[in-house]
């Protein structure tokens, strides 16, 4: 039996325990826990920004990406004094507010960070609208083509958006919005867009909820965007062999048919240093006129 190794580090005045720093979390990429924590620290300004004011769910992989995993909603016990929580329906969610909190979770092998669509401060009115393009096939060579068609349609409606890889198999199209619509109102717009695209491109898109009935089509999931549901946070790592990271893209990159696995824990820091956060490139916009156009809003 291997001997457990532990050490401590001080980060922003908080003493953190690091256990088994040489444990391989992504064996195929040679990423140990120590490397993972270093990469998390580099990602922290962006990851914290997109998880703050959200209910956080993590996925833990104690033995790395090839081992068993489990979802963690309740704050792990024991919870250090510097970790704040938000209680909802009896669940004590960790508030991802600082680098020490992020590294504490990282040391527990929380490899994925999923944030609620609704904000803690204003749960009824989201600050973005998201269309999730979910391939039925594990390997989907048409995913960027599909994302581009969604982006082009939104642009024709006067809607600016940012594509983001899920880090797994799909792409999410994110539309920053002002807080003047409810989740139900946004669902009506999503149903309109999804039905239009599925009708125009029946060999590519579907809005069929049951996976067994989708064939090889890409599901336009407009229902996931709802209060109480979650999305993989921008810049969160994924428990995939390539250590991919959920990454916002330029539309030109989508046109070039980039691969989701191109963006990973080992190169995302350089990209952020050069590109910044692409989600900041689109200002919040109102979609009320679109809702009124399709007959779903007050005039």
From TrEMBL:
> Which residue spans adopt a coiled-coil conformation according to this UniProt entry?
none
Q: What is its EC number?
A: 6.5.1.1
Q: Which CDD domains match?
A: LigD_Pol_like
Tell me, what is one Gene Ontology molecular-function annotation carried by this entry? DNA ligase (ATP) activity
Output the InterPro entries linked to this UniProt entry. Answer: LigD_pol_dom (IPR014145), NHEJ_LigD (IPR052171)
Write the record's keywords in alphabetical order, separated by commas: Ligase
Instruction: List residues of the DNA ligase D polymerase domain.
Output: 32-278
Gene3D superfamilies found in the cross-reference section:
DNA primase, PRIM domain (3.90.920.10)
Pfam families (alphabetical)? LigD_Prim-Pol (PF21686)
Name the UniProt record assigns to this protein = Non-homologous end-joining DNA ligase
User: What is the source species?
Assistant: Paenibacillus lignilyticus
């Amino acid at each position: 039996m291997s001997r457990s190794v532990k050490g401590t580090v001080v980060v922003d005045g908080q003493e953190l325990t690091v256990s088994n720093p040489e444990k391989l979390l992504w064996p195929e990429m040679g990423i140990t826990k120590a490397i993972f924590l270093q990469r998390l620290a580099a990602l922290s300004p962006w990851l914290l920004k997109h998880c703050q004011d959200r209910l956080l769910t993590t996925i833990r992989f104690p033995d790395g990406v090839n081992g068993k995993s489990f979802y963690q909603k309740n704050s792990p016990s024991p919870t250090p004094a510097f970790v704040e929580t938000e209680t909802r329906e009896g669940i004590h969610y960790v508030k991802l507010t600082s680098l020490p909190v992020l590294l504490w979770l990282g040391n527990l092998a929380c490899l994925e960070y999923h944030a609620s669509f609704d904000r803690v401060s204003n749960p009824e009115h989201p600050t973005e609208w998201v269309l999730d393009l979910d391939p039925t096939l594990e390997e989907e060579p048409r995913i960027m083509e599909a994302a581009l068609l969604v982006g082009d349609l939104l642009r024709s409606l006067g809607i600016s958006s940012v594509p983001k890889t899920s880090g797994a198999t799909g792409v999410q199209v994110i539309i920053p919005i002002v807080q003047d619509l409810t989740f139900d109102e946004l669902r009506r717009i999503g149903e309109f867009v999804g039905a239009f695209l599925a009708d125009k491109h029946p060999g590519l898109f579907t809005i069929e909820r049951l996976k067994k009935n989708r064939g090889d089509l890409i599901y336009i999931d407009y229902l996931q965007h709802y209060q109480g549901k979650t999305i993989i946070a921008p810049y969160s790592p994924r428990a995939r062999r390539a250590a991919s990271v959920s990454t916002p893209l330029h539309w030109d990159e989508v046109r070039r048919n980039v691969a989701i696995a191109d963006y990973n824990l080992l190169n995302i820091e350089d990209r952020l240093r050069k590109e910044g956060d692409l989600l900041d490139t689109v200002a919040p916009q109102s979609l009320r006129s679109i809702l009124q156009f399709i007959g779903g809003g007050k005039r």
